[in-house]
């Protein structure tokens, strides 16, 4: 069955590998929630499936559970009322190890086939998952659909393709024949078996539970590892559905479903750290705070640890050929999901003497006004604004807005909006604060907070941006300039700081966005992440090669 | 110039990548020290060059040195009398960082071209290096030539090929065009820059200073990193010559020679650990004891650490179709360089009721006698024996022979031989000791020491071998069986323990040998090593990719 799955998706897999190597635009899963793509009934069926999850236990017949966990609250103002089985570590790990035995031996085609079928079925569940993502993360529906569904599925496929690409470089067998001058050559038959590391632990976050977890989850599965998925206590449901789908496909393919398990736990339950240090855990994929990510890197030394943590994303404004386009683009980036993206810009450097534009010189005040006006326009109509802003995921974000107000001069205040449908939803518009270059903010203010920083000149801005990204981490850097030398300087600074650079975004592409198969998400070269989604280093150490060799005169081993 | 180097060696590089993917026999550098290969005068010139090194300072015009280090003694019984510049860490690191700036930007072709030219020039110096290896490690001349010269150079080329293969999967640029339905597509021009990690530290060992150091050294250089080479205080000369050659090529190519530096230090000088923990050190390649390797893995958390440590290599004897061939093969493996190889077998499991052979049943005693007799024959003539045994590298090895004698019943004692040419050389034949399965040795006795262990049956032997390799590490596992089921069981045990398996070696291939481009050396899947030579995981995290993207409507950045 797993080979049938492989054959079903082989063409997709080959396209994925091809896309990874050319890095042009490619997407397997449509981001349009249109009935023409997903079917006339998909939207209603998906919503109903999500609603049927509420206020009851989530059934998941997995091993070694005792008791229940789960107290998720929608950022739109109600409790989900779902409970999940709560595993006992000491029983779960042996159960997973036992389940993994036949998976371990199944080989790359079975691993890829099962993984690809899981992703295809997740795609068919995109509406259900979209509502689950919306009501755990606070994303607006369209974003929850796209980022939580097809974009996350594309990242899953990318990880599977990346693993397949690497495993394909290793031959199953080789004939080795070494000449011996006048004597008969030495002849050996060799075989190379791909062996997974063991059990992978995937630790999800509360803002992008699927998008950030799928790469590690599917890189592990596609290389033969078992996976324990540990969601953030605030965003369990999207990953519980994912685990349910994975277990269903595994069982159909004749494998033990406990190859993929859910590790639900309650807030303030230290059990996750205990699990992360267990010797059976060979791989850890983490998205979340720098504190927790650094702790894992420094303590879970028995495992390969892949982290995405926090950072300070920045915009350097030198000059532009489209001031209004720039302002609109930046405003949208700051508003999108209320800045609760690891890619949202935070520090914006603008020369204190202003910049060149096609309409002539624009003063510092004119540039900042263009940006704050664009934000005000985007958020002026609450009913439309909430479809971009979404809701505030947690109280920490709200408190951060308060703290940021005191850091400088408020250029645009954050205000509360009323959601037309969810009266209890917490909605906030972006806050823009001006601070001195001397006190340029070097910690992450995750949420709808940005700082405008007047600089003496662009050189100063580039230097600051490079240093802050290098020391404090960054996933994105954005630059605006019409000057080729400035663009080169920005590219060099980005290379030195190990941060992806976007230049002159004035239209429909935003710095927050990272496209699977084309954009590396993170570089692994600054403190914001120790890995990139997805590259060879992200997959190649999740498996090992064990070889057997024997002289050909003797009958070969299997 | 570096591009000229690249063009000069491009065909070799492409062959190397091809060889890596097919894993059949391939070697770029001839292992024959014949004048027909290396030239009529090469042997004499190389010896004279080595001799000219003795009893004087080794000139290396590298930055930031103060004072001298070096007190190497040949295991053949004399002091080399060579001193080396001793770097000051606090000055060396900034000097290397400064030198690395232009190297960092030079790009994959320059990195590969310079690396390949260095290896080609090392090949031309193989005789000089052979003498240097012989008189630091104690290897016999032929082994010092082959393993220290062409085989090490092949491993260097393998690492360069592996790095090139991975970097080649990443396009320099991409055109990204995302359809927008009825609207114009979004179009972006993207570029991907390969950025090295920084400075790599390569820590050599005293038995295979070049073979074990070249993979890390050249994997670093080929991915644009600077390299500090820290030899074992007992085997500096071969790596000093290597560094000299590297610096010469770098200078010719227009780069600062301090991109590759030597970090010579004296025994018991703790400065190596201080260096390993410096934040500038981004990569560490280590070969040596488990104590030091584990310390680096647990403490040098700022760096990617690749280690080869100690382990317990084993032989499982179930049955054979060539008892004498098996005995001769095992005897040679035990004698070669007096067991001072990380791949030498140590524990030999033989069923207590004997084994099947073509000549009928052979008792436990008959099998052990066949092995010990073969050793005695190989070592009977001292003049011939020393060409296989080489000399004992250090006193620790000699003391280990004494300690091993007390572990059980001595089946074949280790005796001192007189070297016909070097009266003061320390030469020892292999010791074979019988121990109970209950007290099967689980620590490494590096040197000419092996343990014969009677077992109830082959199942018991396979179980023991798997458990010991899994818990205590192993680089090799050897098995003898004519039974396909036993061979399968051995292959499964090897996969579970992450150790390379050799079956039924009775001829001219020995378990100690590991061929570049075909055999993975180490798996990274048991405690003997956390990496393999050389695979994708060994190279892919030595560089990162930093991308730049810009809408195509705007003029593209460089």
TrEMBL record, chains A, B:
Lineage top rank: taxon: Bacteria
Matches recorded under InterPro entries: Ald_DH/histidinol_DH, Ald_DH_C, Ald_DH_N, Aldehyde_DH_dom, PaaN_2, Proline_metab_enzyme
This protein's UniProt keywords: NAD, Oxidoreductase
Aldehyde dehydrogenase domain mapped to chain residues: 97-467
PANTHER family assigned to the protein according to its UniProt record, in alphabetical order: DELTA-1-PYRROLINE-5-CARBOXYLATE DEHYDROGENASE 1, ISOFORM A-RELATED, DELTA-1-PYRROLINE-5-CARBOXYLATE DEHYDROGENASE 2, ISOFORM A-RELATED
NCBIfam families per record: PaaN_2
Name of the protein: Phenylacetic acid degradation protein PaaN
Gene name in the database record: paaN
């Amino acid at each position: 069955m797993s080979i049938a799955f492989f054959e079903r998706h082989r063409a997709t897999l080959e396209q994925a590998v091809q896309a990874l190597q050319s890095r042009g635009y490619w997407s397997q899963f449509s981001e349009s929630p249109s009935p023409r793509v997903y079917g006339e009934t998909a939207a209603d069926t998906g919503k109903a499936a999500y609603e049927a999850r509420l206020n009851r236990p989530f059934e998941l017949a997995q091993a070694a559970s005792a008791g229940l966990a789960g107290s998720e609250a929608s950022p739109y103002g109600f409790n989900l009322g779902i409970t999940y089985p709560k595993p006992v570590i000491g029983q779960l790990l042996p159960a997973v190890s036992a389940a993994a035995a036949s998976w371990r031996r199944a080989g790359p085609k079975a691993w890829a086939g099962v993984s690809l079928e899981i992703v295809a079925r997740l795609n068919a569940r995109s509406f259900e998952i979209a509502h689950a993502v919306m009501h755990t993360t606070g994303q607006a529906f369209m974003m929850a659909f796209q980022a939580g569904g097809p974009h996350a599925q594309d990242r899953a496929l990318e990880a599977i393709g990346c693993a397949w690409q690497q495993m394909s470089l290793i031959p199953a067998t080789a004939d080795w024949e070494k000449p011996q001058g006048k004597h008969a050559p030495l002849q050996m038959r060799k075989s190379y078996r791909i062996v997974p590391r063991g059990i992978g632990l995937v630790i999800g976050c509360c803002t992008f539970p699927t998008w950030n977890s799928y790469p590690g989850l599917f890189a592990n599965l596609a290389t033969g590892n078992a996976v324990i998925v540990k969601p953030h206590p605030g965003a369990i449901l999207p990953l519980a559905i994912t685990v349910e789908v994975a277990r269903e496909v595994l069982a159909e393919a004749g494998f033990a479903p406990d190859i993929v398990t859910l590790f639900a736990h309650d807030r303030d339950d230290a059990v996750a750290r205990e699990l992360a240090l267990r010797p059976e855990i060979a791989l850890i994929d983490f998205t979340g705070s720098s504190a927790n990510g650094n702790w894992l890197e420094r303590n879970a030394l028995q495992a390969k640890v892949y982290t995405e943590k926090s950072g300070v994303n920045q915009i350097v404004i030198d000059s532009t050929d489209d001031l209004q386009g720039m302002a609109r683009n930046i405003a949208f980036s700051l508003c999108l999901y209320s800045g609760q993206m690891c890619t949202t810009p935070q520090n914006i450097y603008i020369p204190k003497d202003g910049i060149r534009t096609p309409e002539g010189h624009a003063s510092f005040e004119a540039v900042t006004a263009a940006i704050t006006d664009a934000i005000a326009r985007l958020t002026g109509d609450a009913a439309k604004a909430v479809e971009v802003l979404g809701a505030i995921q947690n109280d920490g974000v709200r408190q951060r807005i308060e703290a940021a107000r005191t850091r400088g001069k408020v250029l645009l205040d954050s205000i509360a909006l009323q959601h037309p449908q969810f009266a209890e939803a917490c909605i906030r518009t972006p806050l823009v604060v001006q601070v001195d270059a001397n006190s340029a903010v070097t910690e992450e203010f995750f949420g709808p907070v940005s700082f405008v920083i007047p600089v003496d000149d662009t050189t100063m801005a580039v230097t600051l941006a490079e240093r802050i990204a290098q020391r404090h981490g960054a996933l994105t850097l954005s630059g605006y300039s019409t000057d080729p030398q400035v663009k080169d300087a920005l590219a060099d600074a980005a290379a030195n700081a190990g941060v992806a650079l976007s230049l002159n975004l004035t239209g429909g592409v935003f710095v927050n966005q990272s496209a699977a198969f084309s954009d590396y998400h993170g570089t692994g070269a600054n403190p914001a992440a120790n890995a990139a989604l997805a590259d060879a280093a992200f997959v190649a150490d999740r498996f090992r090669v064990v070889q057997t060799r024997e002289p050909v005169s003797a009958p070969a081993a299997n």
